[in-house]
Write a structure and sequence with these properties.
Length: about 110
């Protein structure tokens, strides 16, 4: 998978859809901002949680968005691999494969 091109395409698709449902997008953005705010849990911890959910639900674009956020938040490869090990443990075989995808995305976005 070419992660950079894939994410560019999905962002374009989301942009097109967003024009059709601007109020939904506005609400989603407000919810996302509130959910990611540092509190008892850091934004980085919350992004690791989101990545685990993305792996469990097998959402390629979600993996891309949350891995990019983790790169922005200076997550280490070691931290990512530990989180992926937990996602694999909780989700079994499918999560094993999607964790491998997430690791590849991390390597690409870390370049």
């Amino acid at each position: 998978m070419d992660w950079k091109n894939f994410m560019a395409e999905i962002e374009a698709d989301i942009g097109t859809y967003s024009k059709e449902v601007p109020e939904t997008v506005k609400g989603f953005g407000i919810m996302g901002k509130a959910a990611k705010t540092n509190g008892a849990l850091s934004e980085k911890t919350k992004e690791f949680m989101a990545l685990g959910i993305a792996i469990a639900t097998r959402c390629d674009s979600c993996i891309g968005f949350h891995v990019r956020a983790l790169v922005r938040l200076d997550a280490s490869r070691e931290e990512l691999c530990e989180a992926l090990a937990m996602a694999t443990y909780m989700g079994g075989g499918p999560s094993y494969a999607y964790s491998a995808k997430a690791l590849k995305a991390f390597d690409v976005f870390s370049e």
